[in-house]
């Protein structure tokens, strides 16, 4: 009885990595693609296209679309459906291993640029604020980000190959360097950088609120003119960036722990049961890291009213335009009432 039960558990553990890649992987692939398309529609719209952070987030959405439809898709086929495309075709092997780190770093860097742009816009000093929302700079940094990481990771396109049925680097110093590079930049840096940026962004938002308090008393004065719709979008986008930073920390800390653990224990003697358990943990943490790329659209839909209006405008253009015209009329009426002499 015990032997049979043990065999059943081992069989379930052995099947779990494949099932995770099929079901969880396909779920992430579908939701991620829908989110990328939604982000591209919104950040290409007239209301957003002239904002620097939109350029960064649009570029990130394009990068994520490639990430889902090559990196994640090949993972599902290789590790879920057991189609050996990476160990059968050298070019796919090289490009997939390159894109897995390159796409990761490009997306995180562009998201960091968008967060820094919002951070600069909330600063008290005009010297820092003038660096926010610089459209020409955002285009240059987006292109520079893609080229920078390509030059830094492009060696995988040349040096990676198929060795003994495995797609990987040649053994030796290069393999050690490449391994630790991925651990540091793809595993450890994202949660640390996002933690720092989230903290600074939250602190800056609090400072903006505190600056509304008049010196000499603690009474918050009401604004004379209500915020414009675009200002409300910017404030809501700041909230979205903070939540996305929190998601990054939650999803990438397990991934970083797994990468470190794998490197520390790679020469340890392990039982078959432990290997099976670690395989499940490895596949789960690697798939969990895709949640950051798949979640931005849905976080924006929940937190950003302007974002939702842009989506409605695409699918319900006439009704949404009438609503926006009504909102603009109401806003002009309120502004006029506040500015009339008493």
Automatic annotation (TrEMBL):
Q: Which GO terms describe its molecular function?
A: G protein-coupled receptor activity
Q: Start and end of every G-protein coupled receptors family 1 profile domain?
A: 35-303
Tell me how this protein sits in the membrane. Multi-pass membrane protein
Q: Name one GO cellular component term.
A: plasma membrane
Report keywords, A-Z.
Cell membrane, G-protein coupled receptor, Glycoprotein, Membrane, Receptor, Transducer, Transmembrane, Transmembrane helix
Q: Please tell me the species this chain comes from.
A: Adineta steineri
Signal sequence, renumbered to the chain: none
Principal location: membrane
Protein's UniProt name: G-protein coupled receptors family 1 profile domain-containing protein
Q: Where in the cell is it found?
A: Cell membrane
Membrane-crossing residue ranges in chain numbering: 20-44, 141-163, 183-202, 237-261, 287-307
